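Shift notes (night). Ran Glycine--tRNA ligase while the centrifuge was going.
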Amino acid sequence: MKEKNKKEDDLMEKIVSLCKRRGFVFQGSEIYGGFAGTYDWGHLGLALKNNLKQNWWKKFVDNRRDMYGIDAAILMNAKVWEATGHVANFADPLDGKQFNTMLKTEVGAKKEEVAISYLRPETAQGMFVNFKNTVDVFHPKLPFGMAQIGKAFRNEIAPRDFLFRQREFEQMEIEYFVRQEDWEKHFEYWKDEMLDWMQDLGFDMTKIHELEVEKKDRAHYSKRTIDFEFDYPFGRKELFGLAYRADFDLINHKLEYIDEEKGEKIIPHVIEPTFGVDRAVLALLLSVYVEDNKNGEIRSYLKFKSNIAPVICAVSPLLKNKPELVKYAENKVFRLLKAEFGRVVWDDNGNIGKRYRRQDEIGTPFCIVVDFDTLTDDTVTVRDRDTGEQERVKVTDLKKYIQEKI
Ligand code: GAP
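Came back to this:
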């Protein structure tokens, strides 16, 4: 048991250190000693996070006919949070008294005009308060959904475990409006959709477990919740959630829906699939981190699927002081691939072995090297991250070769 715990602690340390060393995630306000519960995203972490969010948006918004996006303000009228019960109930126990975890702020310059506001603790309310706008503009038929990706803030009593529990984080949420009698059917459907997305992105599905949350542990607005838990090194804990919010929010905001065909007024019920971006990144890193032994040397790499890898391929001239190699690599390979795939980097730092290690560590699926043979036969070496195997590929076939692999 002790040995297992040590291994898990080590893994977490390795991930945190890799994130810093390779420019994925830095501690927030680091040069001033940090600021608890905040992290800053470096170039590669940002690329990973953007790919993840774009992938989510494509599946749940762009590829559907029944979903409407919104990007609501983070600062909202305090009445929103009074109506939803967050002011009264959004609290964690602290020293026997309840501590409200919403981050309060003051808005306005003149004393008499200053209003209390809260940095939103969930993106969900940005959708509910725009329910009427969306219905009035798009006239959607039930069932339909609203989707939002954005920051959320919670004054967590004890932020910890790297990206797991922060005070500022990001959510990707859907509020799906259904007829009351259909809620169970849609709940099951969304459970499968969430699992599908996790599978498609490359989460280690053996580490994901469903937990039926007991009434006493559910949020105040939920009539049923399933947590998708993940086996993190620090324990099995919540990754994402799926809640049946029933008509709680629409009733509290005094909102309703008119079925134009039937001419009836109803209050739709809500199924809410919710995804934390930061926890998704952490669980993904833990899912794809691999160590193997290559010719007696331990190497670590991130086995990202190419749909989310921050970099798809790195292009290198074998030697950076040979202008003919550099010119060929730049003009005939790098530019071609950059225009096609975007996520392509130039890497001529150190020897080839070092470049491979560096690209392995950030999870780049392919390294392409221009060498002296290239100058005579127009072929390049393509090295596969996972197997370490190398193939000669004609430059004219390179785009197709990579497209097929990804
Ligand atoms: N609108 C529903 C809602 O906000 P939640 O379970 O409180 O539900 C949703 O939060 C998701 O947001 C969680 O499943 C988790 O992925 C993420 N999350 C919540 N608190 C977080 C925190 N302090 N740090 C990082 N992510 C967090």
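The pocket of glycyl-adenosine-5'-phosphate is lined by residues 122, 124, 154, 156, 165-166, 169, 171, 173, 238, 240-241, 272, 274, 276, 278-279 (CB under 6 Å). The radius of gyration is 25 Å.
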